[in-house]
Design a protein that fits this description.
This protein has 486 residues and is α+β, with helices and mostly antiparallel strands. The chain is built from 18 helices and 15 strands. It has four domains: 121 residues, 2-Layer Sandwich (Beta Polymerase, domain 2), CATH 3.30.460.10; 122 residues, Poly(a)-polymerase, middle domain (Orthogonal Bundle); 128 residues, Alpha-Beta Plaits (2-Layer Sandwich); 44 residues, Alpha-Beta Plaits (2-Layer Sandwich).
Amino acid sequence: MPPQDTLEAVCKTVLDKITPKPDERERIEGLAQKLEKKVAEIAEHFGVKITVRLEGSVAKDTWLSGEPDIDIFMRLPPSIPRSSLGEVALKIARKATEGTKQVERFAEHPYLEAFVEGVRVNIVPCYDVKSGEWLSATDRTPYHTDYVKKHLEPSMRGEVRLLKKFMKGIGVYGAEIKVGGFSGYLCELLIIHYGSFVNVLKAFAQHKQRTIIDTEGHYKGREDELPLLFNEPLVMIDPVDKGRNVASAVQPQKLYTFVAAARAFLKKSSLKFFYPPETMPLTAEKLKETLQDRGSALLFVVFGKVDAVPDVLWGQLYKSQRSLVKLLETNDFKVLRHTAWSDEENLNTFIFELESRHLPSVKKHLGPPLEKTADCEKFLAKHIASPETVSGPYIEDGRWVVEIKRKYTDASVLLTKKLKDGGRNAGVAREIAKTLNKGFKIFVNEEIAEVYAENREFAKFLTDFLEGKPKWLENTVKDCCKQGNA
């Protein structure tokens, strides 16, 4: 194995790139101090008594060079009603970052994301309360910061950076709804618990059905209670709140992706895990050829702007997507894969890959076994003279059976019919339904070419979706095959 490909060499190369240099550190810390002061001044101007604190990765010195996020927290008095917390905070945050690009975000309550001097800044409200007396989810954050600063040794900061960059590279970093992955705080706790980046990978490479971590021993002697209190496949008991699982946002798919990537990296280390190659979208001609050769049917439901902040948008997209999958499956369409994509502005789409767009017009419908006399009478009464009955009722293997006409034989027709009024009856989320009610388009296979050609980010997403496999997998498998053939 070439020296540059050794695990230690790869980690050193990455760490050199992602550790902030003194001039960058000075700029970011200076900007953070300026923003803290500005937020405090604006709050005072509005007559709101707050304590301003820098939180997050900059406060804990675990941020990545070139990717700083400044988290300014406003600790407000508990006397402010919960219903007013977001409104009061947004008013202050907007004024403090006036003239910059601003995006309203939503966790448990609204907060503001702004871009100041090219840096992403989150200005978040919370209540100034004692530990354990939480009034909102963000009240814990200052205590999280204090815990990490106390327990994370200076030598471990680089280990956190490596873990974060690795997770970003394989697409599992970020606890927001869009990603459903590992938060920065969770990464820090994993390093505190296991000691190093490599030790975290080794531990997760052995993950079976569940991993439960209780660093502070909140449940010492009561470990048998944990499976009853938390049912997620990954449980990290919050050191500052024993009733909370820090890993609750991690979707199983993201956890299992991390497990697989950890095994692959330990076997064959590569910079690709940290810096995946940029996706080059298929040409329009190659896209058409790929879809034709694939043999399945890809259906795209394309619609416009949804009136919701990004975090709410993604929650509603995923909820609606699951409901539409259920609709398709209930009508006998075999869904191979499905996903959702959005530019969070003017273009949204659901993608469903089906074994086939079309189904036969007739299907077999099993009735009750003969020993259930009453059920048999109901079945016969329903089907014996029904115009939907093609054949039967007849007896097969001790039960009544009929062959009936399918209501929907074309998946595109089914979706068009169920979504034309917004799709609320099909389980589509409220804000998505409002947009669908104004209009949408359904494209099948290469019919998506025009949308594909007009939006490069969507084209990259669809190219990756069609490819299917992680970008780090090809390198790993090829190497293993070479060793096997040697």
